[in-house]
Specification:
The complex is a heterodimer of chains A (479) and B (1089). Chain A contains 18 helices and seven strands. About 1% of the residues of chain A have low confidence. Helices cover 45% and strands 5% of the residues of chain A. Chain B is mainly beta and 1089 residues long. Chain B has a 22-stranded antiparallel beta barrel. Chain B has a four-stranded antiparallel β-sheet with strand order 8-7-10-11, with no helix packed on it. Chain B has a four-stranded mixed β-sheet with strand order 15-19-20-18. In chain B, a hairpin with a 4-residue loop joins strand 38 and strand 39. The longest helix of chain B is centred in the first third of the chain and has 14 residues. Chain B is elongated. Chain B starts with 11 loop residues before the first strand and ends with a strand. Classes of the chains: A mainly alpha (479), B mainly beta (1089). At the A-B interface, helix 1, strand 1, helix 2, helix 5 and helix 18 of A face strand 31, strand 32, strand 36 and strand 37 of B. Strand 1 of chain A pairs antiparallel with strand 36 of chain B, so a sheet runs across the interface.
């Protein structure tokens, strides 16, 4: 009789032996990275990273004819039930949960050496910081969860500052332990490094306007000599260029037929941002972005293309149903990158590369009064962009702080366009309302018209979470 | 003597017996043979021997000769030769009991069993209904029984010597009155003695229907039984709900087929059904305890009866058609509206000359077709007294009314019963069904379903271009539905074997033991083949692929019951004790591969995964659970007038943690047959009148996951490390669910009050019920805060739901003997459903996704389960002033819909949404009627419902201002300027006001009245058939789903659940243009030998 009633669940592994051996610990670590890839997706991987980072800015349009939710986010008219907010919130917390498990359980794993345990914990802290940084950028202060499986989880939001303090502490811990890129096995590329932690820390300080720290940490990266600019700009955005000299941190993608239907296995961005024959034509660069490139800047072709353009692989571009007539060259699946299943691509997404660091260093140095250092870094980026053509992109010489600031901001826009920083750069430099409202006027567009200063710099907390908390979570003002 | 008598012929004697008396002679023989003899000396003294001398004659012969004509004979008993008096039979002429068995209509009943208990003698009626039993003169009881007729007992039948006593036996249909015997859990009970609420459908109301499955035949038959169409695709099941919907989870009732609790009713051939009983009240269903919370459907299949073999043939053939098409715009009108919508959005029109497009393509015509259906059935039955059998086989072949769909079902059934000893019986029921189904994606949620695509597709696009290529919509991401059907091959094959074996023993008078073992084995195979094809950039496959899934399951249940029945004077008790063990196991393996040989699309013989050359992908899983239950029932009646029933069932399920594994569910009910009381006995028009009431508690765990109590991992989470193309995908794992060890049984408590009456010489039957059914501790995955970080919400006992209602039934039955007659039964049920609380009030359950992320169903306290949720419209803004005066509504302009500012904060936002309708009917009614006149019969079923709303999800395709076709009646009423209309908004491709948002604009009244079936039959006269030895030939013509009276403008107001019975139970009543149920017209033939 007992046999009849004592039946273990089938096809399910229970948590009983999880994260107790080196093998299961590795599984837990891999899962903690997973949330990078399914980064606040709605339907497909990487879907929303660029909706917040680029579509909400003046750089790209959603298009997405059959995705009104995305357009509402783009127009800042979405309400708190919009699935993009819901998914961003829940996916990031899933990543935090997986990272918390690594941090909490790695020290107790039997049969694992101490240095490995320490690196595991450091990776967990890096990931946790990364996820919280995304949360704080999108939503402002959020509940700070630092343990796995909390029993008392309905807690109010912590302040933005408390979240940032935790992020900084985690990153400082991680940076001290993680290996340099040069010390990393090739097969481990994709795991956090010291450089990745330093880059994230620099960006975290920068978002808070802490330019002294930003300068310090970007300088550390430069001085580490682990990274240099790839002489060919576009090479960074090819599969061949993954983890090249410039790469600091990437979200890895690899096509694998076993996981064709699995979120994020091999889709990269080709599927969503590609033209109709491979994808759905989302994230369409605006004319405003196209016009932002200086005459002859080769980065323009490496960033946007229109129908009829010759693409980097020699094929002719077709932008299908793009709302603007442009698509992103950086996310194109090149002919030699096409896997067996042509709707997928194994192309990584760049999170940090050395080009970003130089421009952040330039900005921080200028803010801190070190205009020569700023100019040097800025012109290093422009020099590479020139790719040997002396006729274009002359060196910047302005030393006036404001002029130089504008030049650096401009350079940031074109150097890392469509790399998911633009909206946050606008917010951090307090230009978002002006730029977006101006965009609406200039192009007679609904895009940007509804942006309200002091409200739309962050997005609403998902309504479902407010409901579930029975009022413990309080909505951001203005929503 | 001292010897022993064995074989007297071996003993030879020489003896002289002259002048001796018989007594003396035998004494001498004893002495001479040394055998012991026993005899009555006194009696034999009087007789002298006739023969005197025997010379070496065998003793046996000597005795024969001595005793000849003496009135005595000998026997050897215990080695003694006993001289016994010979009893000569009295010479009398035997008599006969003969007669004919007919039903009330006068039709002969062959195979009826006739028994004379005093003589333990029995026979069965012949093909013409006649029977004859030779008996000695005397006074006897004659018992006549025949399945589905009330058994008869004729007392004091006097048989005189040499005479035949003629009896004319008219059997009454069991379903004509309260004396009906109903199948209840683990037994049968006379309807007059039942104290719970039980609905019943006799087999004859189900047989001969031209439907593919049993569930369709139940529509409109029982008060409180709601049967809704999930899809009209051939071979798909219906949604059955009893007395509303009790839980947020799946509310399917328990189906028990011939005592087999894993019954699959769609396996059965409707022709094989003897009766269907619906245990509605908790007190009736309580014996099924945990499995009966949503009601129990007991199906009894036909059994053989003793007598000559009978053969029943039935066949029908018919045509099916979609009975209604949506009124969509033609190409010219479409092009004009589309241009207008573009212009209103500030964009350039795309159709230069709209009128030149003319009628264009009717995409509904392109996918719908007239489809044949036919069915062939044969059944053999018969047996001898004590051993009967029935075998049947059927074959159904049906094409769907949408291209690319068809269905076949082959089923074979066998049952037999064998009386091994007078006290021991055993038998079996076997049913095997094999189905094949080609399907299309009629449920598909992403608007890529064939039907939803067809109603969206621009009529300006041809199905195929002149060059043979498929037509492609230039703007839309809409597929060409014909191309989709023609390119995707999806085949589902399934077989399912239901078997039960039982032995039944009468241990002592009144005490009966039954053991039944049920086993069901099912096997499914699904295959999808997608070839390389190109229709357009968005509708193409560059790589062919094949996916196969093989699933199999085995369920068994072993049920042992001990029942006792006894009368003590005016008291009568029936007791039942039982124990049941149940176990279920299923598993599946799925495999996927790409790049099949190029000609695989043409020949199925190449559609095998061995031929796939890349993209291999596999998966598999399984599930297992067990349940152990103890139960008991006691029925008591006093004077047949005061009735009481008590049930207790204790269930243990493997799905719960050790602490809460068992739940105990009691029930009791009382009945009072007023018609037996002195004060009503003389009221002539009341034949029977009973009041009954009860209370019962039932458990439920059917929708609980088998892993609900343990925390589980999500495994095989892929993430690659490495560089470039050498990246290796590694597999991670993380906790994804939180187990809840404290889960308890979901329980339903129901109070039921009812009345049953039979009036006016059994011509009128009346039934009424009131019930209050409260389900508490609903097992549900309660959404938890996402910040916990697990992806799957834990199960909790999370809420309460109340259903309450009234049910009425009314029947009119004419005298069956007359040449004209009728049987009419009406049922009417009222139900209210309300979620009374949810564990976390904020945690409403959202369901019913209409477009990405937009959900229109919200289950919340104070409203029905799965209620619709959205904005409330308030007419159309006629001018700018109206826009300015109203609450702030972003994007609004004249011509847009004004929404009500429900919270009065001056802004229209998501807080202005509210409950806007219920998918559940508050009234369901039905009418079944049969009429006959001489050899003609007419049968019909009407059904209807009201009080429910339908969310017209399909209008998100046909009323959007964007890419799709338009629903003509609505578009014609669009706002074109001040005062033009207050109903339909302006057309604008950008829809800046979001007029498409969920609102009461999309809610429609779901009431309807439908003629479900109508059949006119003619039976050939008996006189004609007699010479052929055929009992009956009936031809008929009829139809299913003949007409529907409704104001609903979609395909069909009968909207069930999305994705069929495996779908989300909260996604109900949302019409996404599902596969419409066809109208079927058919002709059929019954032949009974």
């Amino acid at each position: 009789c007992n046999k009849l009633l004592e039946i273990e669940p089938h096809g399910k592994q229970t948590t009983a032996t999880f994260f107790t051996t080196p093998a299961t610990a590795k599984q837990g670590l891999i899962a903690a990275y997973k949330a990078l890839q399914s980064n606040y997706r709605t339907n497909y991987p990487g879907y929303v990273r660029w909706v917040f980072g680029d579509v909400c800015s003046d750089d790209t349009r959603a298009n997405g004819g059959d995705n009104p939710d995305m357009i509402q986010v783009e127009f800042f008219t979405a309400n708190a039930t919009n699935p993009f907010y819901e998914n961003a919130w829940s996916t990031l917390y899933q990543g935090i949960h997986a990272a918390n498990i690594v941090i909490e359980k790695a020290p107790g794993v039997k049969g694992m050496d101490e240095p490995t345990k320490k690196v595991y914990v450091a990776e967990g802290k890096f990931l946790r910081a990364y996820y919280y940084f995304n949360l704080v950028q999108i939503f402002g202060g959020v509940p700070l969860m630092l343990k796995e499986m909390l029993t008392d989880y309905n807690i109010p939001r912590n302040s933005k500052e408390e979240i940032y303090r935790q992020i900084e502490a985690d990153l400082l811990d991680a940076e001290a332990v993680l290996p340099e890129k040069s010390a990393q096995e090739k097969s481990d590329y994709g795991r956090a490094t010291k450089g990745a932690a330093q880059a994230l820390l620099a960006r975290v300080y920068m978002m808070q306007g802490k330019f002294t720290e930003t300068e310090t940490w970007t300088k550390k990266i430069i001085d580490s000599h682990q990274y240099s600019l790839d002489p060919v700009y576009y090479h960074n955005f090819t599969i061949d260029g993954e983890y090249g000299v410039e790469a600091i941190f990437e979200i890895n993608f690899q096509y694998d037929a076993r996981f064709y239907d699995e979120e994020g296995s091999g889709d990269g961005d080709g599927r969503t941002r590609g033209p109709l024959s491979y994808g759905w034509c989302y994230d369409n660069p605006t004319q405003d972005l196209v016009d932002a490139f200086e005459a002859g800047d080769p980065r323009k072709k490496a960033t946007v293309y229109k129908t009829g353009d010759v693409l980097p692989d020699g094929t002719i571009g077709n932008t299908g149903t793009s709302a603007t007539g442009y698509l992103c060259t950086k996310y194109l699946i090149l002919k030699n990158e096409m896997p067996d299943q042509p709707k997928s691509s194994g192309k990584d997404q760049i999170v940090f590369r050395f080009g970003h660091i130089l421009l952040w260093y330039a900005e921080a140095a200028n803010e801190n009064g070190h205009s020569q250092e700023a100019l040097q870094a800025l012109n290093q980026v422009r020099a590479r962009a020139r790719e040997g053509n002396a006729q274009i992109l002359p060196d910047i010489t302005a030393t006036d702080k404001e002029k130089l600031r504008q030049a650096i901001w401009q350079e940031q826009r074109v150097e890392y366009a469509t790399e998911v920083f633009r909206f946050y750069d606008l917010v951090r430099t307090k230009r978002a309302a002006k730029v977006l409202n101006d965009f609406a006027k200039k192009y007679n567009s609904q895009k940007g018209a509804s942006f309200k200063a002091g409200v739309n710099e962050i997005f609403p907390i998902p309504q479902s979470q407010i409901n579930l908390s029975q009022g413990v979570l309080v909505q951001n003002p203005g929503f | 003597g001292t010897g022993t008598a064995q074989d007297l012929s071996h003993i030879r004697l020489q003896i002289q017996l002259k002048g001796k008396t018989l007594a003396a002679a035998i004494s001498e023989l004893s002495a001479a043979s040394k055998l012991s003899f026993a005899f009555d000396k006194a009696a034999l003294h009087d007789k002298t021997v006739a023969e005197t001398n025997f010379n070496n004659v065998a003793l046996s012969d000597i005795l024969h000769r001595l005793l000849r004509n003496s009135g005595y004979r000998y026997e050897i008993i215990n080695r003694t030769v006993v001289i016994v008096k010979e009893v000569k039979p009295v010479k009398v002429n035997p008599g006969k009991i003969a007669g004919k068995v007919t039903d009330e209509k006068g039709e002969v009943l062959p195979g009826a069993s006739i028994r004379i208990p005093e003589l333990n003698k029995s026979t069965v009626s012949e093909g013409d209904g006649s029977f004859s039993l030779t008996v000695d003169p005397g006074v006897y009881t004659v018992e006549v029984s025949f399945i589905s007729f009330a058994p008869q007992r004729i007392l004091k039948v006097q048989v005189e010597e040499g005479r035949a006593r003629e009896l004319s036996i008219i059997m009454k249909q069991a379903s004509s009155a309260l004396s009906e015997v109903l199948v209840v859990g683990y037994g049968t009970q006379e309807k007059k003695d039942i104290t719970g609420s039980v609905g019943s459908v006799a087999g004859e109301q189900i047989n001969n229907r031209t439907v593919g499955s049993l569930d369709q035949a139940l529509v409109g038959k029982v008060a409180g039984l709601s049967v809704s169409n999930n899809s009209g695709a051939p071979g798909t099941g219906m949604m059955i709900r009893i007395r509303g919907v009790g839980t947020i989870n799946n509310s399917d009732p328990l189906y028990v087929v011939d005592g087999n609790p894993f019954g699959n009713i769609n396996n059965l051939d409707p022709e094989d059904i003897q009766s269907v009983e619906i245990l509605k009240s908790a007190s009736a269903a309580a014996i099924y305890g945990s499995r009966g919370a949503n009601g129990v459907v007991l199906v009894t299949t036909k059994k053989g009866s003793a007598g000559a073999m009978k053969i029943d043939l039935h066949t029908f053939t018919g045509m099916q058609q979609v009975y209604k098409k949506l009124k969509l715009t033609n190409a010219a009108t479409y092009a004009r509206y589309y241009n207008d919508a573009l212009k209103a959005g500030g964009l350039a029109p795309v159709f230069d000359n709209p009128d030149s497009y003319g009628q264009g393509t009717d995409w509904q015509d392109a996918i719908f077709r007239t489809a044949p259906v036919s069915k062939y059935e044969v059944a053999f039955s018969g047996g001898k007294e004590g051993s009967v059998y029935r075998m049947s086989a059927s074959y159904l072949k049906q094409k769907g009314t949408v291209i690319g769909t068809d269905y076949t079902k082959t089923s074979v059934s066998l049952n037999s019963t064998h009386q091994l000893k007078r006290w021991l019986k055993f038998g079996e029921n076997l049913n095997y069904a094999f189905t094949t189904r080609n399907s299309i994606s009629d449920y598909d949620s992403d608007a890529r379903g064939i039907i939803s695509t067809a109603i969206q597709m621009a009529p300006t696009v041809p199905v195929k271009n002149a060059d043979g290529s498929y037509g492609v919509s230039p703007f839309a991401n809409t597929y060409n539905p014909v191309a989709a059907v023609e390119n995707i091959q999806r085949l589902n094959k399934r077989w399912w074997l239901m078997g039960s074996f039982y032995a039944q023993a009468d241990l002592l008078p009144g005490l009966n033991y039954k053991s039944q073992f049920n086993i069901n084995v099912g096997n499914g195979r699904e295959r999808s083949y997608i070839p390389v094809y190109y229709v357009s950039n968005s509708q193409k496959e560059d790589v062919s692929s094949l996916e196969e899934e093989a699933s199999n399951g085995t369920d068994w249940a072993w049920e042992n019951t001990l029942s006792y029945s006894r009368s003590f004077g005016k008291h009568h008790i029936d007791g039942l004790l039982g124990v049941t063990a149940q176990h279920s196991y299923d598993s599946y393996i799925r495999a996927y591969g790409q790049n099949l040989p190029a000609d695989a699309s043409l020949t199925r013989s190449l559609q095998y995964l061995d031929l796939a050359s890349s993209g291999m992908n596999i998966g598999g899983g399984g599930d297992e659970w067990g349940m152990l239950s103890y139960f008991g029932r006691l029925n008591y009646s006093y004077r047949n007038t005061y009735l009481a029933t008590v049930n207790v069932r204790r269930d243990g399920s493997s799905k719960f943690g050790a602490n809460n594994r068992f739940g105990t569910f009691p029930s009791f009910s009382l009945g009072w047959r007023l018609s037996n009381e002195p004060f009503l006995r003389d009221v002539k028009f009341i034949n029977d009148l009973k009041l009954r009431g009860g209370w019962g508690s039932l458990g439920n765990e059917s929708s609980l996951s088998t892993s609900a109590t343990v925390s589980t991992l999500k495994v095989n989470i892929p993430y690659p490390f490495g560089r470039g193309k050498e990246q290796e995908v590694l597999l991670g794992a993380t906790p994804s669910s939180i187990g809840n060890m404290n889960l308890k049984w979901e329980s339903t408590r129901e109070t039921d009050l009812g009345l049953d009456a039979t009036l006016f010489d059994n011509r009128i039957t009346v039934g009424a019920d009131y019930y209050h059914r409260a389900t508490s501790g609903i097992l549900v995955r309660l959404p938890i805060l996402a910040s916990v970080g697990v992806s799957e919400a834990p199960y909790v006992n999370g809420g309460n739901v109340v259903n309450k209602g009234f049910e009425f039934t009314l029947g009119f039955h004419s005298n069956r003997k007359k040449s004209f007659g009728y049987d009419i039964s009406l049922n009417y049920a009222i139900n209210r459903n309300e979620v009374t609380s949810l564990m976390n009030d904020g945690a409403a359950f959202y369901a019913g996704e209409i477009t990405s992320g937009v959900r229109v169903s919200k289950t919340m306290a104070g409203h029905p389960i799965g209620g619709f949720f959205g904005y409330v419209t308030d007419g159309i803004f006629q001018d700018q002033k109206a826009v300015d005066d109203a609450a702030k509504q972003p994007g609004a302009a004249p011509g847009d819909i004004r929404y009500k500012d429900l919270n009065g904060d001056g802004v229209i936002d998501d807080k202005d949404q509210t409950y806007i309708g219920s998918p559940w009917p508050t009234r369901i009614y039905g009418l079944s009627a049969s009429f006959w006149y001489k050899n003609f019969d007419l049968n019909l079923t009407l059904s209807g419902r009201g009080g429910n709303q339908i969310y017209t999800g399909w209008k998100h395709y046909t009323n959007s201002s964007g890419i799709s076709n338009y629903f003509a009646p609505d578009k014609e009423q669009s706002w074109t300027g001040e005062g033009s209309t207050n109903k339909e908004p302006r057309v604008n491709i950008l829809d800046p006001n979001n007029n498409m948002r969920p609102s009461d604009r999309w809610i429609q009244n779901g009431s309807f009245l439908r003629l479900n079936s109508l059949q006119l039959g003619y039976s050939l006269p008996q006189s004609l058939l007699k010479r052929w030895g055929i009992a009956k030939v009936r031809v008929y013509a009829g139809g299913e789903n003949l007409f529907t009276i409704t104001r609903y403008d979609g395909f069909d107001p009968e909207v069930g659940m999305r994705d069929g019975n495996d779908g989300d139970p909260l996604d109900v009543g949302i019409d996404r243009a599902y596969y419409p149920r066809p109208r079927t017209l058919s002709v059929g033939l019954n032949v009974n030998f």
